[in-house]
Amino acid sequence: MLRTQRALRVLGPGDLDEVTGLLARDPVVNVVADFRARTTRLEPRWLGGEMWGYYEDDELVSVCHSAANLIPAMATPEALERFAERALRRGPTCAAIVGRSEDVDVLWERLGPEWPTPRDIRAGQPHLEISSAPLVEADPQVRRSTLQDLDVLYPACVAMHTEEVGVSPECNGGGPIFHAGVTQLVGTGRSFVRIDDGRVVFKAELAAVTPHACQVQGVYVAPDLRGTGLGKAGMAAVVTHALREVAPVVSLYANGYNAPALKVYERVGFRQTATFTTILF
């Protein structure tokens, strides 16, 4: 009887087409891993870590992005076992594990007993998509950010990150890196903002962009203006811009306990297509 040959190896630039071809089987859910592969071309110096590939009979069937975040994609049960083994050998080097709940749960069963206690485990995060015009009117004052906006935009980005993650991105000397990331998003046209009277009242970014999809992150409404409709109209504007100029599908994932945000996304026209889990360290 023939036996399936299985192997895990670290992928490189020569594997890029094979990786993007695999991720294209579920391109919206896998948009972040796909984006990282495309933008770094799997060059280790740009990836900031590794991309692992799991093969069966010389066919790539699963990958795992292992850099700032650990992200399994198209993961089979056998691949998850091997990914966990490699992660245990390398030790805890990531800030988060994120992906489909069924994949992250399996990884954490193996990693949890030996890795540090996480700051938070956010299970049941709806992954949402929209590929048609928003169901509500877009805010005409939401526009792409410019580098001239950085002085007022950056504090809003810090506030949003701190509120969402629970830790300021400027802690432990992280300010310059975070500022550089915000600047890059603005410079590449992936930051959207509404500024009223010199302050940011709404903002959002496209964290990942591929030919197949883009993913929204960092949605923020000034605290004193929440519940006024700014978030709904602002998201409609971001979706309109993105569908027209960036990608054919817009996605995001949100905490399951954030009922107000989920209601906004539903009214805009987003629909759930998967469930994610994020483990933060």
Automatic annotation (TrEMBL):
Kindly name one Pfam family recorded for this protein: DUF4081
- Domain called N-acetyltransferase: residue spans: 140-281
What InterPro entries does the annotation carry?
Acyl_CoA_acyltransferase (IPR016181), Bact_Acetyltransf (IPR050832), DUF4081 (IPR025289), GNAT_dom (IPR000182), UCP21603_acetyltransf (IPR016794)
Matches recorded under SUPFAM superfamilies: Acyl-CoA N-acyltransferases (Nat) (SSF55729)
- The answer to keyword NAD applying to this record is no
Keywords, ordered alphabetically: Acyltransferase, Transferase
Gene3D superfamilies on file: 3.40.630.30
**Would you say which domain of life the source belongs to?**
Bacteria
* Protein name per UniProt: GNAT family acetyltransferase
